[in-house]
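HUMAN: Spend a minute on the protein record below and explain its fold to me.
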Amino acid sequence: MTFRTRFAPSPTGPLHLGHAFSAILGHDMARARDGAFLLRMEDTDLQRSKPEWDAQILDDLTWLGLTWDGPVLRQSEHLTGYDPALHRLDAMGLLYPCSCSRSQIQAALAAPQEGVTHEVYPGTCKHRSMDSRQPGDALRLHLDRALDHFGGFYPDFEETGPLHTGTHRIDPDQALAEIGDVVLSRKGEDIVAYFLASALDDIGQNITDVVRGEDLFGFVPIQVILLSLLGHAIPRYHHHRLIRDEDGKRLAKRDDARSIATYRQAGKTPADIRAMVGL
């Protein structure tokens, strides 16, 4: 099978060194294997995604010397394409409406657990049925019921990244404790959320190898669970190291001082960027 990977930024801010590392690594892996490197804009956040950031990302990637195969896929251009998956999960009894605000969720949570990478939903609306859905409600995955569908035979996935190389089987207890009932359709927008959209687009683009940052490794189980429930094959995953600042913190889009545009303006070259990220 031909190696196919993708770079999938959100056009909500500038590319920084961490993005550049991920894009270059995926691109180089694909070219070394005579495979395909695709570009996808994960722009379902219609309020924060901006055309100017989309254009800047394309310009920065081109300046870095990267090329991609085929047209850019923009999630915002096929939002209704995710609806069949949501309808199927609903028919399986795996969705429930949620009206909780972020502040309500934070107030309901106990002290954060060591190693938990996001706020695990405390289950406030878990008792609700889809019949009770109101305008503005989000839709969450009922993870307990989803796991019950596997009858104790949980799916696994292959990881080729340096920190977690090998085959990993889904641990239901860990998934419940560290991921929980994620949002699949966002509150107030009725638009698919990241976990489902990203996983479905990997299938739609025939991605064989998902190359992305180590910070997303902990969320692989939920995407594997979703794809398995929907009857899709599971791609391989490759989670790479993160580019961090002098204090050891991973870079964020608000860190404009390390944006590719800033380095370009300062006279750096694509070769300089490669050297800065250890390539």
